[in-house]
């Protein structure tokens, strides 16, 4: 075998060419995956739009349609990897047709921003899409008539991690009839999706001392998200 010795300068030259090539490939890979995300977002946006229009429509499947002002479908990034699910729209949400825009929503938005995210990065929805009169708890029949629509929304968005805000969300989606204080922060992996229950923002407003626990759950949610994204 012919062994050729190269000088130190030549070696540096080869290494810097390799480094430049590696950086180009890295940027190219990032560009390609960004393009894929844009396409995925546009496709899911259209699917959600059609689903809302054709399947949910001007829903009259339960009595909440008689008292609601607006149906609150959900909003955010249709290709989000992280989704938050609350209980039901309140007065402000009913007025605006958007989830979590009242006092609890302001707090939720701050918690999300504390993670370095914006509301547009994630998706927010509720267990039911119409406001119960005087913000009473949703009834079982209301949850049952709305659930197929939430499940279809989750199927389209296909988030890797879902944060369940409060016990109604926990019970309706996981069937866990447990106090949120007993399960908060735990990670439930079901059919390749991670569910993490924590306190509802409205409960934090009434019990401000628990905010640190919720911040901890939110931070751990980000770790869980990074972990599943690596897989
Ligand atoms: N509480 C919820 O559970 N959802 C909202 O959208 C607002 C308040």
Write a brief structural summary.
The chain has helices at residues 8-56, 91-96, 103-113, 140-157, 167-174, 180-183, 201-206, 211-230; strands spanning 75-76, 82-86, 123-126, 161-165, 188-190, 193-198. It has 231 residues and is of the alpha/beta class.
Ligands and ions found: uracil
Q: Estimate the strand proportion.
A: 5-15%
What ranges have pLDDT less than 50 throughout 5 or more consecutive residues? none
Compute the CA-based radius of gyration: 23 Å
What is the SS-derived class? alpha/beta
Mass-distribution shape = elongated
CATH architecture of the domain at 70-230: 3-Layer(aba) Sandwich
Oligomer: single chain
Provide a descriptive summary of the structure in words.
Helix content is 53%, strand content 11%. A six-stranded mixed beta sheet has the order 1-3-2-4-6-5. By secondary structure, it is α/β, with parallel strands linked by helices. The chain has a domain at 70-230: Uracil-DNA Glycosylase, subunit E. It starts with 7 loop residues before the first helix and ends with a helix. A hairpin with a 2-residue loop joins strand 5 (188-190) and strand 6. It has eight helices and six strands, in the order αββααβαβααββαα. It binds uracil (URA). Uracil binds at residues 86-90, 93, 99-100, 102, 104-105, 126, 202.
